[in-house]
């Protein structure tokens, strides 16, 4: 099977073109493909499938995706299905352009969180309309060496975005965070962030199903939303281990802008 490899601020993905939905991706296959020693290596899988090929498998929450031609079937590195991935949508959009599957600088991509608008910027960055961010109260998590408190947020998938004192580099994200299972029955991504300059955040993230990653697009949006006073708009530059993205927050929701790169193509015998 053909594959490509891409990343958005070093959040990297194996891209599997499967336009007619003929590949049955088991958890074991996803884990092997994402294995950085025994497989291709990545934080997750982006399966490129025509939306109409999914038929009744399209979840109710994704119904607005029915109007899109291409659907991003995203899997975490552990094989679990994820609702949304901000960096993944940018990389998915870049692959569609790279492969000639779409044309123009404005189109939509289907996700389990519905249709997402894509804008290709003049400098090559890609901006994704992430929709409305849902603030759901507060919660906490126990990390390896400390307890952090933050905002419970949905960006199509669940997050706990926690402001911390001192450098985010000092936070130990080596272990799976312990979350309130009532607040997060399906688990969540946990972000730690700090404001380092006016309009600038630094952030690290432990992603559900993948561990600490170099970047997380929905997590970047969650951190920016948590740092913004309720009812206000804002523009944030968010620095992560793999680079920097920009978040625009206004009454219409959130937009995420950043790079997306295809770095390799090839053929795998693992599927």
Automatic annotation (TrEMBL):
<feature type="site" description="Could be important to modulate the pK values of the two catalytic cysteine residues">
    <location>
        <position position="207"/>
    </location>
</feature>
<comment type="similarity">
    <text>Belongs to the diaminopimelate epimerase family.</text>
</comment>
<keyword id="KW-0413">Isomerase</keyword>
<dbReference type="GO" id="GO:0009089">
    <property type="term" value="P:lysine biosynthetic process via diaminopimelate"/>
</dbReference>
<keyword id="KW-0028">Amino-acid biosynthesis</keyword>
<dbReference type="InterPro" id="IPR001653">
    <property type="entry name" value="DAP_epimerase_DapF"/>
</dbReference>
<comment type="pathway">
    <text>Amino-acid biosynthesis; L-lysine biosynthesis via DAP pathway; DL-2,6-diaminopimelate from LL-2,6-diaminopimelate: step 1/1.</text>
</comment>
<feature type="binding site">
    <location>
        <begin position="86"/>
        <end position="87"/>
    </location>
    <ligand>
        <name>substrate</name>
    </ligand>
</feature>
<feature type="binding site">
    <location>
        <position position="157"/>
    </location>
    <ligand>
        <name>substrate</name>
    </ligand>
</feature>
<feature type="binding site">
    <location>
        <begin position="217"/>
        <end position="218"/>
    </location>
    <ligand>
        <name>substrate</name>
    </ligand>
</feature>
<comment type="subunit">
    <text>Homodimer.</text>
</comment>
<feature type="binding site">
    <location>
        <position position="189"/>
    </location>
    <ligand>
        <name>substrate</name>
    </ligand>
</feature>
<feature type="active site" description="Proton acceptor">
    <location>
        <position position="216"/>
    </location>
</feature>
<feature type="binding site">
    <location>
        <position position="76"/>
    </location>
    <ligand>
        <name>substrate</name>
    </ligand>
</feature>
<protein>
    <recommendedName>
        <fullName>Diaminopimelate epimerase</fullName>
        <ecNumber>5.1.1.7</ecNumber>
    </recommendedName>
</protein>
<feature type="binding site">
    <location>
        <begin position="207"/>
        <end position="208"/>
    </location>
    <ligand>
        <name>substrate</name>
    </ligand>
</feature>
<dbReference type="Pfam" id="PF01678">
    <property type="entry name" value="DAP_epimerase"/>
</dbReference>
<feature type="site" description="Could be important to modulate the pK values of the two catalytic cysteine residues">
    <location>
        <position position="159"/>
    </location>
</feature>
<dbReference type="GO" id="GO:0005829">
    <property type="term" value="C:cytosol"/>
</dbReference>
<comment type="function">
    <text>Catalyzes the stereoinversion of LL-2,6-diaminopimelate (L,L-DAP) to meso-diaminopimelate (meso-DAP), a precursor of L-lysine and an essential component of the bacterial peptidoglycan.</text>
</comment>
<feature type="active site" description="Proton donor">
    <location>
        <position position="85"/>
    </location>
</feature>
<keyword id="KW-0457">Lysine biosynthesis</keyword>
<dbReference type="InterPro" id="IPR018510">
    <property type="entry name" value="DAP_epimerase_AS"/>
</dbReference>
<feature type="active site">
    <location>
        <position position="85"/>
    </location>
</feature>
<feature type="binding site">
    <location>
        <position position="11"/>
    </location>
    <ligand>
        <name>substrate</name>
    </ligand>
</feature>
<dbReference type="GO" id="GO:0008837">
    <property type="term" value="F:diaminopimelate epimerase activity"/>
</dbReference>
<keyword id="KW-0963">Cytoplasm</keyword>
């Amino acid at each position: 099977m053909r594959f490509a490899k891409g990343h958005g601020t070093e959040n990297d993905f194996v891209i599997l073109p499967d336009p007619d939905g003929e590949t049955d991706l088991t958890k074991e296959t996803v884990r092997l493909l994402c294995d950085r020693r025994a497989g291709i290596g990545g934080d997750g899988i982006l399966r490129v499938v025509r939306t109409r090929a999914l038929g009744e498998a399209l979840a109710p929450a994704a119904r607005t995706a029915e109007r899109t031609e291409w659907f991003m079937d995203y899997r975490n590195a552990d094989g679990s299905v994820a609702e949304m991935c901000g960096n993944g949508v940018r990389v998915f959009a870049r692959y569609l352009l790279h492969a000639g599957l779409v044309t123009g600088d404005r189109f939509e991509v289907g996700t389990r969180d519905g249709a997402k608008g894509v804008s290709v910027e003049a400098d090559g960055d890609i901006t994704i309309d992430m929709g409305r961010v849902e603030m759901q109260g507060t919660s906490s998590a126990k990390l390896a060496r400390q307890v952090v408190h933050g905002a419970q947020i949905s960006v199509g998938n669940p997050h706990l975005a926690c402001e911390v004192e001192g450098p985010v580099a000092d936070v130990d994200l080596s272990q799976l965070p312990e979350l309130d299972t009532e607040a997060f029955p399906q688990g969540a991504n946990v972000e730690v962030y700090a404001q380092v300059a006016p309009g600038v955040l630094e952030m690290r993230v432990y992603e559900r199903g993948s561990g600490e990653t170099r970047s997380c697009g929905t997590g970047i949006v969650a951190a920016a939303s948590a740092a913004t006073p309720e009812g206000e708009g804002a523009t944030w530059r968010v620095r992560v281990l793999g680079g920097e993205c920009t978040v625009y927050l206004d009454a219409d929701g959130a937009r995420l802008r950043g790079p997306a790169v295809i770095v390799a193509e090839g053929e795998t015998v693992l599927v």
